[in-house]
Each structure stands twice: as structure tokens, then as C-alpha cells.
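User: Here's a structure from my thesis project, written as C-alpha cells. My advisor, Dr. K., wants to see whether a designed sequence matches the one we expressed. Can you design one independently, without my sequence as a hint?
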């Protein structure tokens, strides 16, 4: 039920048997109390929930993680076996609207293709000790490098152009998902790449096993992201006060 792997959540839950209420206040002799005194528990919880509701949370406990693995853009690509699934989609939609959808992907906004398939993969990841899809994202529309997006981490953001997500799911290899957009004529060209560095024979078999799912998920994902961007553009172009 937690948004972090079992190896981290189990010790945290086990620690709940210990009393964590502070009954000594020697630190007050060194650090003065804040104006208005200490914040009561109920007030602290109310403030925290209010910040989460308003999208003002700076970080979350689900954001903790290891440093990035080697990037798919590193020059030692020649030393890796690399599997790619690449899709492009051209549309008359302004690139800024496509980027808005890209930056808001994941969490409550979903992944724009076969929600059940994503949930099943999340359940499998959770059963094997991963975080699954429970981590969500800090803000529904804004993203910063290093932040968590479900079982991904935002590894690189070129604002308005490129989002690279590094997978933190359980898999026999390293994986990334790149979503990008660029101007094309009066519209835009959306590009989507799934990149996988397999680890041994298990990694290669894993890629072959998920290929049928990729052939369903990724084409629909590219179409639906572009369609969502068009809906956003149409909504913003409607005259003020117009009710569709």
C-alpha cells in the first residue's frame, strides 16, 4: 500500500512499534522556539494536506532514489545491446500544447493508452518488490528533473521540447522513455522512444515477451497524446463565455 519498494517500507512500518513522541526539550536551550510556538500535530497535518491539494509540495518521500544509471545518450552506446521502440506522429497542433500533455503525463493524468495494461504491469512490479504505480507525481502539470512519475524518474527535461524518463521498475535491464516535440510546418511532430539495455539472456527474453504489449500500447499512446493536445488547443481557442 506504500509508494516505495518493500525493502524500504517494511523497516519503516516495523519502526512504528517504537514511541516517537519527544518528551525532552533540551534543544530549546540552543534553538529558540519559532514565533507563535511549536505547531500542534493536527495543525501540521492540515497544513501538509493543504499543500498537497494546492500542488505546493516541494518533495515527497517517494522521490528518494539512487543516482542515475548511464544515459541512453552516452557515447558508449556501441558497447551495449540496445532495443528501441520508436514512434512519430505529425499533427497541426501547436508544439506548446503537445508539451503541456507530455509534461503532465503519469499520475492521475495516466499514460494515454490501455490503462488496465499499465495497472497490471504496476501490480506485477509491486509483487516483485518494486514501487508499482503508487508513487504518482508531485504536481499534476509541472515537472522538474529528479522527480518521480509513477515507476519512472524524470532524468532530463528540455522545457518545451524533451522529457526523458528513467524506469525504476523491476526489470532485467535498464529502460528509458523519451517523449519529445518539435515544430513541423504550421504544426508539430511528436516523437516517442522506448529504450532498453538488456541484462544478459533474461533481459533479451524479457524484451521479446513485452513486444506484443508494446505494439498495442505505444502506437495508441502517441495518437492519444496528440489528440489530447488538440483538445487542449481547441479549448483554449474557444471564445470567452462560450459553452460547448
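Assistant: Designed independently from the structure alone:
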Amino acid at each position: 500500500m506504500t509508494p516505495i519498494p518493500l525493502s524500504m517500507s517494511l523497516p519503516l512500518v516495523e519502526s512504528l512499534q517504537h514511541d516517537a513522541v519527544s518528551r525532552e526539550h533540551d534543544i530549546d536551550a540552543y534553538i529558540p522556539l519559532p514565533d507563535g510556538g511549536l505547531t500542534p500535530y493536527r495543525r501540521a497535518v492540515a497544513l501538509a494536506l493543504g499543500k498537497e491539494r494546492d500542488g505546493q509540495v516541494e518533495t515527497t518521500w517517494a522521490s528518494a532514489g539512487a543516482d542515475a544509471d548511464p544515459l541512453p545518450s552516452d557515447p558508449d552506446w556501441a558497447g551495449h545491446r540496445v532495443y528501441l521502440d520508436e514512434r512519430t506522429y505529425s499533427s497541426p497542433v501547436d508544439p506548446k500544447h503537445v508539451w503541456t500533455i507530455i509534461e503532465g503525463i503519469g499520475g492521475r493524468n495516466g499514460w494515454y493508452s490501455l490503462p488496465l495494461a499499465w495497472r497490471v504491469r504496476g501490480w506485477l512490479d509491486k509483487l516483485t518488490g518494486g514501487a508499482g504505480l503508487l508513487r504518482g507525481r508531485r504536481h499534476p502539470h509541472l515537472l522538474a528533473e529528479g522527480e518521480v512519475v509513477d515507476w519512472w524518474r524524470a532524468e532530463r527535461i528540455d522545457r518545451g521540447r524533451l522529457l526523458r524518463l528513467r524506469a525504476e521498475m523491476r526489470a532485467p535491464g535498464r529502460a528509458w522513455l523519451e517523449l519529445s516535440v518539435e515544430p513541423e510546418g504550421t504544426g508539430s511532430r511528436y516523437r516517442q522512444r522506448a529504450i532498453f539495455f538488456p541484462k544478459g539472456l533474461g533481459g533479451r527474453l524479457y524484451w521479446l515477451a513485452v513486444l506484443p504489449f508494446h505494439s498495442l500500447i505505444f502506437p495508441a499512446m502517441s495518437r492519444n497524446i496528440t489528440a489530447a493536445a488538440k483538445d487542449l488547443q481547441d479549448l483554449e481557442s474557444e471564445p470567452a463565455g462560450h459553452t460547448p
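When you compare it with your expressed construct, this may help: The radius of gyration is 22 Å.
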